Amino acid sequence: YSHFKSKHCSLHSADSISTMITTSFHQSPLPMPANPFTSGGNSMLSPSCVRFRQSGSFSVAATSYSTSVATCVPVPASFYEILGIPIGATIEEIKAAYRRLVRVYHPDAAAIDLKDSYADEFMKIRASYCTLSDPNKRAQYDRSLYPRRRTGNL
């Protein structure tokens, strides 16, 4: 779970809890029946519970059963959040944020016991910078964050 910046946690009390876990930058949860183990006479989750999209993102549906369960669903951080900059940041602001974070999270600057976690953070910072510093990649990324809604009028 090291590629997620934050988690949304909540406590649920019920006999059956359906939990949606979505690992993509634009969330699109799958529809889940109330009890997938009994609906339609199927005793197991069907392969239709996992759907892959051409965009490279994916969603996974999971169901857990318990009387009291703490559910933590990771929320992926955007490249802007990783660099700590606003969406409309200039290239100079992107470079400055990248340089500031690299000085802190570069694996060579980390204590021995933190090298692995710093390496993970550094890779996220580097990927964010590579995407946001290239105007074409940034435009494509921004479109993936805010996909257009299709209407019948277009």
SSE diagram, text form:
Elements: E1 6-12, E2 17-23, E3 50-52, E4 58-64, E5 69-75, H1 79-83, H2 91-105, H3 115-132, H4 135-145
Protein name: J domain-containing protein
Pfam family, one: DnaJ
InterPro entries: Diphthamide-biosynth_chaperone, DnaJ_domain, J_dom_sf
Produce a short descriptive summary.
Helix content is 32%, strand content 20%. It is an alpha+beta fold and 154 residues long. It is globular, with a radius of gyration of 20 Å.
Characterization of the model:
By secondary structure, the protein is an alpha+beta fold. The chain folds into 2 domains: 6-75, no CATH class; 79-145, Helix Hairpins (Orthogonal Bundle). Helix content is 32%, strand content 20%. It has helices spanning 79-83, 91-105, 115-132, 135-145, and strands spanning 6-12, 17-23, 50-52, 58-64, 69-75. Strand 3 (50-52) and strand 4 (58-64) form a beta hairpin. Helix 2 (91-105) runs antiparallel to helix 3 (115-132). The longest helix has 18 residues, at 115-132.
